[in-house]
Amino acid sequence: MDVKTTQTNGRVPPNGAKSSGGKSVRVLGTASIAGVSLAAVLTLRGMPSVAEYGWASIGLYVFGAIFFLIPLALVCAELGTGWPKAGGLYAWVRQGFGPKSGFLAVWFEWVEGIVWFPTVLAFVAATIAYIFASSLSNNKVYLVLVMLAVFWGMTLINFLGLRRASLLNNIGVVIGTLLPAAVLIFLGIYWLAAGKHIAIPFSAGKLLPNFGSISHLVFFVGVLLGYAGIELFGFHAKETKDPQRTYPRAIIASALVIVAVSILATLAIAFVVPQAKLSLVAGLMQAFAAFFTILGFSPVVTQIMAALTGLGTLALISVWLLGPSKGLYAAERTGDLPPVLHAVNRRHIPVAVLVAQGILGTGFALVFLFVPSINASYWMLSALTTQILVLMYIMILASGIRLRYTEPNTPRAFKVPGGNAGMWIVAGVGILGCVLGLVLGFFPPTGVATWPTPIYVMAMFVAIVICSVPPFIIERIKKPSWFIAHPDPVLLDVDEFGDEIGRESTTGSSEIAPKPVGETVPEARAVGASVK
């Protein structure tokens, strides 16, 4: 690939709207942003883990929408329209609490993806197995080989630029997620209407979660992970047409679809796959196979659904590969990443960060070869992913509250209704849901854990600490040479770059180590600010 560091030749594109070649980079409209949100959030992959809870999954999904998805979507809509800057959540948290907190937040977003990729890649591999031989879904060597091939293949596709990746996302969402979900929901409704036997007998009392049982409430972790990702539209702020109008419309539409599809598709799985036989990795294809076999359809139909579902999951992987990597690149404005990670290609893709992500993700994928239970490893990685995510979401929600007071006059095309009190209520409810998810993540669901609970809790705690420590180490060891001299104008807001350098160097902040006396940074000179 042609890798280079973008230079601006002393001129800063207004609001990052133009690339160095003069072409507009604002290519995403409401449909595309809604597609990004649906591709990032709506996935059939995690539904088997919630289907284990049967009818009570309805209550869990509604509970999760009230205490997580809706508050987060509302706050992100306000932050996204008030601060439509490159870096997404990094820009939001940095605006609210400073560069250190901004870097920690985007680090959480990036590192959770590395932990999470093996789980979704295993789902893809198991789904593809149903195209050829379903028994391969239990073969670890097959799983790992397909996981790595898909992972690096999607990484290379993202090197080609956002337009091509966006095309895959939109196509994948429609025929790879929405279509299989519609078929699954139709089969579930038909099954129920025809009076056929279902694996979860209905009673009104089963619609609500058992709030007195930790082993039941722990499935709330699966719901939160299923709803995660609504904030990813913020990473594409500088490529979005009229973000002040686009964001709210796209989020509202995608949120309604996500909740409805999640409930109906999860119940359809629970109707035909008994809990004792449900695989967390291949549960979706188990359901399709059961429906089509009993209804007398050819196995080819199951294979077609496997192919479509695999395509939809590829779109999911594509969104999560690129979005957080772009956010992490934005942290380079404060010298938080070494120069080896500064490389950007001519299509404004942070290729160095993507390669580093691929290497670390490969390491986690190889773990599947050494873990005795696929279900146990799948759940533990999913729970760890959720715990890291909710820590990041707490920072985003808290930023929404803080910015109401520190920057009350900043124009926001969309504001959480109810004034400051409304923001406190909405963001507070979201924070409460995040804290609940964090705590529940330390408890394994019945029938999944392979270790005693105390050891499981300690393992999860140690894993969270390991994933959280690097930003604090980086803060201590970073050098002046880490500071990026020529930021990409699409991935980073260079119009603010020089002002930020001047503020931080004159205040003596340790966020950016000062340059030698008399040396200036090109972008700082372009906007009239020098570094002392």
Can you give a write-up of this model?
The chain has 532 residues and is mainly alpha-helical. The chain has 19 helices and two strands. Helix 1 crosses helix 7 and helix 6 packs antiparallel against helix 13. The protein is globular. Residues 1-20 and 497-532 have low confidence and may be disordered.
List the helices and strands and how they pair.
Blueprint: E1 3-4, H1 30-41, H2 47-51, H3 57-82, H4 89-97, H5 99-132, H6 140-159, H7 162-193, H8 214-217, H9 220-227, H10 243-272, H11 283-294, H12 299-330, E2 344-345, H13 351-366, H14 374-406, H15 419-440, H16 453-468, H17 470-477, H18 497-506, H19 522-526
Antiparallel strand pairs: 1-2
Helix pairs in contact: 1-7, 1-10, 1-12, 3-9, 3-10, 3-14, 3-15, 4-5, 4-14, 5-6, 5-12, 5-13, 5-14, 6-12, 6-13, 7-10, 7-12, 9-14, 10-11, 11-12, 14-15, 14-16
Mean pLDDT: 78
Helix % is 55-70%
Poorly predicted regions: 1-20, 497-532
What is Rg? Answer: 23 Å
From the spread of the alpha carbons, the general shape counts as globular
Strand portion, in percent?
A: under 5%
Structural class: mainly alpha
The ordered H/E elements are EHHHHHHHHHHHHEHHHHHHH
In total, the number of strands is 2
Helical region count?
19
Main beta-sheet annotation: 2 strands, antiparallel
Terminal CA distance reads 37 Å
Neighbour order of strands in the largest sheet: 1-2
